């Protein structure tokens, strides 16, 4: 058993638009709602029309840690870049209201899981100071959260990608730019594989990255006809698709990936620390005269390319990444019979 403090990830507003397909219409609907006071958040947040309409734009990652004081401090820090050490809610709210007073605000609360009305009402009270036209966008995977937090209906549901957009995303990963015609015999098989994804971008990117490593027609046919597509997975029908990518990892890479579920969901993974942990657990093999740290770096980069890790960020302190919630679910389903994780500060019964 390993225990990790819940160091929450900080999702950002920047997005690689070259890998975004099929969201143009949804983006326009949300933007028009914002600009007309009636109503993808990353695409919307960075649109030039939104930038000019709102005097202040703030992005805060919430996750399942919906503590009002933490969120108010995060909003204050986003405004002027300075951390606030106050712990009492009342002075925090006063500072926030001073900074927001008379300004048109767009606040994005990303990845919200809180279903408690009193917590949301407490945060709303602290935000009742912007001018008319201020807006809050909430992103969530839970319908009840959207219904509870919504003040304007209807709620915007993100749809799955169309067949054409799914194919565009897949072929960009599987064939690279301008190379699809070079592999025309694989094109028709690829389109059959894409139909099995259900328009889910994460699954398309993961399998597209995997197929970029396979050049033989027999390998593509084997993937198309795999029995794993037919496995039931309860409500998470995407997991069999992701499991295909996992099954094609080398054994040592499977260990490195599954190990990451010991971190809490939404944890920010530090590359150097992660490689050290892989080394300490004996997951990284020696091969080709490559020193172990560089071998670990190769594994990290491979997991990024195959979409097991995402949102890689680099700064003076090093490289970090995140795991999509569904990838975390996949890792847990693999490792659940061998160990379990306990979040710091939460009581749990050890089986």
TrEMBL record:
UniProtKB keywords: Plant defense, Repeat
Pfam families named in the record: NB-ARC, WHD_DRP
Domain NB-ARC: 43-175
GO biological process, one term: defense response
Keyword Lipid metabolism appears in the UniProt entry: no
InterPro entries linked: Apaf_helical (IPR042197), NB-ARC (IPR002182), P-loop_NTPase (IPR027417), WH-like_DNA-bd_sf (IPR036388), WHD_DRP (IPR058922)
Segment forming the signal sequence: none
Domain Disease resistance protein winged helix residue range list: 262-331
Alphabetized GO MF terms: ADP binding
SUPFAM superfamilies, A to Z: P-loop containing nucleoside triphosphate hydrolases
PANTHER family, sorted: NB-ARC DOMAIN-CONTAINING PROTEIN, PLANT BROAD-SPECTRUM MILDEW RESISTANCE PROTEIN RPW8
UniProt name for this protein: Uncharacterized protein
């Amino acid at each position: 058993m390993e225990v990790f403090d819940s160091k929450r990830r900080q999702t950002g507003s920047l997005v690689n638009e070259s890998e975004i397909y099929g969201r143009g219409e949804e983006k326009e609907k949300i933007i028009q709602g914002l600009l007309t006071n009636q109503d993808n958040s990353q695409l919307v947040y960075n649109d030039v029309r939104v930038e000019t309409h709102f005097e202040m734009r703030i992005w805060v990652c919430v996750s399942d840690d919906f503590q009002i004081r933490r969120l108010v401090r995060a909003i204050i820090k986003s405004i002027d870049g300075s951390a606030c050490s106050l712990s009492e809610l009342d002075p925090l709210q006063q500072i926030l209201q001073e900074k927001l007073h008379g300004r048109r605000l767009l606040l994005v609360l990303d990845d919200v899981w809180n279903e408690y009305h009193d917590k949301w009402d407490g945060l709303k009270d602290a935000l009742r100071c912007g001018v008319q036209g201020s807006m809050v966008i909430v992103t969530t995977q839970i319908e009840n959260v959207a219904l509870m937090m919504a003040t304007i209906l209807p709620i915007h549901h993100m749809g799955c990608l169309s067949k054409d957009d799914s194919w565009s995303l897949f072929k960009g990963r599987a064939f690279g730019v301008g190379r699809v015609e070079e592999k025309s015999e694989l094109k028709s098989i690829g389109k059959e594989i894409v139909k099995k994804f259900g328009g889910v971008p994460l699954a398309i990117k993961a399998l597209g990255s995997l197929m970029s490593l396979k050049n033989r027609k027999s390998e593509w046919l084997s993937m198309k006809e795999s029995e794993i597509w037919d496995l039931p997975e309860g409500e998470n029908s995407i997991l069999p698709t992701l499991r295909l990518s996992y099954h094609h990892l080398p054994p040592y890479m499977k260990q490195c990936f599954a190990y990451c579920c010991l971190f809490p969901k939404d944890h920010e993974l530090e590359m150097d620390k992660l490689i050290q942990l892989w080394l300490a657990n004996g997951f990284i093999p020696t091969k080709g005269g490559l020193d172990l740290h560089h071998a670990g770096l190769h594994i990290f980069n491979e997991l990024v390319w195959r979409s097991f890790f995402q949102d890689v960020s680099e700064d003076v302190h090093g490289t970090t990444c995140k795991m999509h919630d569904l990838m975390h679910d996949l890792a847990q389903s693999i490792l659940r019979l061998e160990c379990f994780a306990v979040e710091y500060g939460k009581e749990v019964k050890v089986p």
